[in-house]
Specification:
This protein is an alpha+beta fold. It has nine helices and 23 strands.
């Protein structure tokens, strides 16, 4: 009798949600399908996935719809193999991951169709706004080629590994921002200077108090470091929506103001292209990409070093010296002829020029040791 009663209740629940899921609950026979129909959260996720999948089918070229359909069938099969009907957490994770993947694909397909109009009305410039998943008109997940087209500018690429690159847009923003690309897809952006802000209006030189006011309880302190007596702190905007759980906006704070900020996918938004396991050649390219831009001495504000590609230019009180080529090396000849093979070195102006050991570098500061004297030179990115 009890078994019959439970069956009736189950049928009533299914009847109430017949049209909600992406499949017909009246015809559901699998235990997992029935579980989805009677669970509100799973039902909503399934419906959302169905809507996104349908939009992606319409947005995709006909040649790709067959592959999309095969991919969806394969995902359903994997879902049913990995999850049981009673494991709501497992099913929820599978749906959220699939929704995130198809949403990115839909964004990419939509951007392809609107590229021409985007270039006309919304190129990448100083008015672009940064969000968790984009800096308009570039969405994270776009291929570098599509992003370059949408931005309306050429990209300069510095290969760090075969899979990870640092990308700089040419033109007016070349000293202001860089992108991180993984497997030829844009995954993060770094803002060093200029007028670009977040959608909430936070940008370079915004006050820390403004960040806390705009983002309230979503802000976390990631840590702090002291360079030459100056404290740099990192604050992260952590979204509450689970669909954005792998994304962050990170602000580097100096003197209670935003010194730089980044947005995009973890871990690249925080670590860029991590170089701890790279080859020597890849490490040199990674260092070269980090060096690009203008660096102001912390001891003398009139003293600036500008690094463009492999050219080092000293600027003092707005007077520019002639640029000198430099090489990144694993060793630097000292005056006594000995070779120090520890760390990364910059040989500026050839064998008769200057030699520096790169003691530390990140998005905000650069610390060099002038050899052979051992003088420490500290710079902040402008």
């Amino acid at each position: 009798m009890l078994q019959k009663y439970c069956a009736i209740i189950l049928l009533l629940l299914i009847a109430q949600t017949t049209m909600a899921a992406s499949f017909n609950c009246d015809k559901a026979t699998k235990k997992i399908e029935i579980a989805i129909c009677v669970n509100t959260t799973l039902d909503q996720l399934d419906t959302k996935l169905g809507v996104i999948y349908e939009k992606l089918q319409k947005a995709s070229p006909k040649a790709e719809t067959s592959q999309l359909r095969k991919g969806q069938i394969a995902w359903i099969k994997q879902r049913d193999e990995k999850c049981t009907a009673t494991d709501v957490t497992c099913l929820t994770d599978y749906y959220q991951d699939r929704i995130a993947i198809l949403t990115t694909q839909l964004s990419t397909e939509s951007s392809k169709k609107s590229t021409a109009s985007v270039i006309e009305v919304s190129k990448l410039d100083s008015q672009s706004k940064v969000l968790l998943r984009s800096i308009n008109p570039i969405n994270f997940g776009m291929s570098t080629k599509d992003a370059e087209t949408a931005a309306g500018v050429k990209f300069s690429r510095y290969g760090v590994t075969d899979s990870c690159q640092i990308i700089t847009p040419m033109g007016e923003l070349k000293d202001n921002i860089t992108f991180v690309a993984v497997n030829d897809q844009i995954v993060a952006v770094n803002i060093y200077s200029g007028k670009i802000t977040t959608k909430s209006g936070i940008g370079i030189d915004s006050l820390e108090s403004q960040i806390l006011k705009k983002y309230t309880s979503n802000i976390q302190l990631l840590g702090s470091t002291t360079v030459d007596g100056d404290e740099f702190r990192m604050l992260a905007f952590v979204p509450k929506d689970d669909t954005d759980k792998d994304y962050r906006i990170i602000f580097t704070i100096f003197d209670n103001k935003v010194h730089s900020f980044s947005a995009g996918q973890l871990p690249y938004v925080q670590e860029s292209c991590n170089d701890t396991t790279l080859s020597t050649e890849a490490k040199e390219l990674n260092l070269l990409s980090k060096l690009q831009g203008k660096w102001q001495s912390t001891e003398d504000n009139a003293s600036i070093v500008e690094i463009t590609d492999n050219t080092w230019t000293d600027i003092y009180d707005n007077e520019r010296d002639v640029g000198m080529n430099f090489d990144i090396m694993t060793a630097c000849l000292e005056q006594d002829g000995k070779v120090d093979e520890n760390g990364s070195y910059l040989q500026v102006g050839g064998d008769d020029g200057f030699c520096y050991n790169v003691d530390d570098i990140n998005n905000t500061h650069l610390v060099l040791m002038y050899l052979p004297r051992g003088n420490i030179l500290t710079y902040n990115r402008m």
